[in-house]
Design a protein that fits this description.
Chain A: It is found in: Cytoplasm. The complex is a heterodimer. By secondary structure, chain A is an all-alpha fold. Chain A is built from twelve helices and no strands. Chain A has a single domain, classed as Urease accessory protein UreF. The longest helix of chain B has 17 residues, at 263-279. In chain B, the strands form two sheets. In chain B, strands 3, 4, 6, 7, 9, 10, 12, 15, 16, 17 and 18 form an eleven-stranded mixed β-sheet that branches. Chain B has one helix and 18 strands. Classes of the chains: A mainly alpha, B mainly beta. Chains A and B meet through helix 3, helix 4, helix 5 and helix 12 of A and strand 14, strand 17 and strand 18 of B.
Chain lengths: 224, 280
């Protein structure tokens, strides 16, 4: 396995379209729930341990070679609002294009053919990691980190937050990212015996409610 | 000769003076008879879960769960199994809120609800809120198995702390399978030991959170519309009325998710969702 492949996959410049999404930060800024680095950190910690944990489990399971279509169904069952299912599939489709160009594999081709409108992004991310020769824990790290790097980057643009402060938030959450990635990878190991029910299903009510609300805004800076 | 029982029978409302928690599983079986009335061949309360039949036999049987003593306490393992056989109709309510309280040993309490609904059958599962008292630790699961043409109406409300107190630790998983496929799988985790639970991504300071779910084959042809509830719908008011969303799942079902400052305002949002879901 190549550690550098993980850097390529997790790089914010990996052309998978994530920069257009705020991960719920835009509605949280508008509602006055994120106003500075401290409130950004609170938001990110909650997102990491809910949506981030679910994504880490799905990505690790896909990287371990579990059936991506069953994982895609499991992702649907864990995503109760249509706005977030649509975003996950749109991001999955963009991740699929980038991954097939970067680390071509028969498994990616098969999933692209089975889900032409896109599979849930963490499933595609996990399969991309597998194609790159990475381990399930690597895929979980990439998914967990992405769950907070997106909102942190968006907050810089939405609030004119100092990028140093936003990056310091990510650094302060590094131990939490490690823990969430490990939880996701541990859960993925249990899929063999217990099926996809073993994967985390942590929910964040406000992320669901505000994502659906945000999708109806006529004017917004971010797609989600 | 007869053997003496280890545990003497004790009247309802008291607890054995044991540090270990109690184990109890209550069971309900609803079955339609030859003229279409739903009968209750099994209605077995157990421990703190006493069951009462409500009203005369009808197309829909009605059962009320009456808390016969304080529970769940830390260390308790409670279960409630309800099955509605094909063609039957059952509505289960509760007489009062369930309060999770600390036990003597610091062990978590477990409460597992298993609901099974057959083809053409309908279950309305409408308990009162679950209140997580300070110092309590409850792990709850609600697992629903639905036949392809089963109908389900389910409400779940969690209140974090009694009035003016801190919340206990509450972890609750709701899994709904229909025709063998998982339709909904959601775990909520709040309170001490759960990172980020009170933050702006999860509850944002709200202390009541709930879901209202309707599963029906009617949604196969006609998926429900999205509807925003309370403050999410842009209804501005001085007091925080809470907010929520009613939206279709990836399957023939609609789910409302809502957060509010207290149980009263949460119920108002979920009632609004219920009216909207019924209107289609």
């Amino acid at each position: 396995m190549s550690r550098a492949a993980l850097l390529v996959l997790a790089d914010g410049r990996f052309p998978a379209g994530g920069h257009a999404h705020s991960g719920g930060a835009e509605p949280a800024v508008t509602a006055g729930r994120i106003t500075d680095a401290a409130t950004l950190e609170t938001f990110c910690r909650g997102r990491l341990h809910t949506a981030g944990l679910v994504a880490a489990g799905l990505a690790a399971a896909a990287a371990a070679g579990h059936d991506p279509l069953l994982l895609d169904d499991a992702a649907d069952a864990r995503t109760p609002v249509p706005a977030l299912r649509q975003v996950a599939r749109r991001l999955g489709r963009q991740m699929m294009r980038a991954a097939r160009a970067t680390w071509p594999s028969a498994a990616l081709d098969a999933l692209a053919a089975a889900r032409p409108r896109g599979a849930h992004q963490p499933v595609v991310l996990g399969l991309a990691a597998r194609s790159a020769g990475l381990a399930p824990l690597d895929a979980a790290h990439a998914a967990a980190y992405e769950s907070i790097s997106g909102p942190a980057g968006a907050a810089v643009r939405l609030l004119s937050l100092d990028p140093f402060d936003a990056t310091a938030v990510l650094a302060r959450l590094a131990a939490d990212v490690d823990r969430v990635a490990q939880q996701g990878a541990d859960a993925a190991e249990r899929v063999v015996a217990e099926g996809t029910d073993a994967l985390p299903a942590a929910s964040a009510p406000l992320l669901d409610i505000t994502a659906q609300q945000h999708a109806a805004w006529p004017v917004r800076l971010f797609a989600s | 000769m007869t053997l003496a029982l280890d545990t003497p029978a004790r009247p309802e409302g008291t607890r054995a003076p044991s540090a270990a928690g109690l184990r109890a599983t209550a069971r309900i079986l609803a079955r339609p008879d030859s003229v279409g009335l739903t009968r209750l061949p099994v209605l077995d309360g157990d421990g703190p879960l006493a069951l009462r039949r409500v009203g005369a036999p009808g197309r829909q049987a009605r059962v009320c769960v009456v808390g016969a003593m304080s529970a769940p306490l830390g260390g308790d393992r409670l279960g409630l199994d309800a099955t509605v056989e094909a063609g039957g109709a059952l509505c289960v309510t509760a007489a009062a809120a369930t309060v999770a309280l600390p036990g003597r040993t610091g062990e978590p309490a477990h409460y597992d609800v298993r609901l099974t609904v057959g083809d053409g059958a309908r279950l309305d599962w409408l308990p009162e809120p679950l209140i997580s008292a300070a110092g309590s630790d409850l792990r709850m699961t609600t697992t629903v198995e639905l036949a392809p043409t089963a109908r389900l109406v389910l409400r779940e409300e969690q209140v974090l702390g009694r009035s003016g107190e801190e919340t206990g630790a509450l972890r609750s998983r709701l899994t709904v399978r229909r025709a063998g496929r998982t339709l909904l799988d959601q775990e909520t985790a709040y309170g001490p030991g759960v990172p980020g639970w009170d933050g702006s991504a999860v509850l944002g300071g709200h202390r009541a959170v709930g879901q209202f779910l309707v599963v029906s084959p009617d949604f196969d042809d006609r998926p429900a519309d999205v509807r925003l509830l309370g403050a999410a719908a842009g209804e501005r008011s001085a007091a925080d009325e809470g907010q929520g969303v009613l939206a279709p799942l990836a399957g023939p079902a609609v789910l409302a998710t809502a957060v509010a400052p207290d149980a009263l305002r949460l119920r108002r949002l979920l009632d609004e969702a219920a009216r909207s879901a019924a209107a289609g």
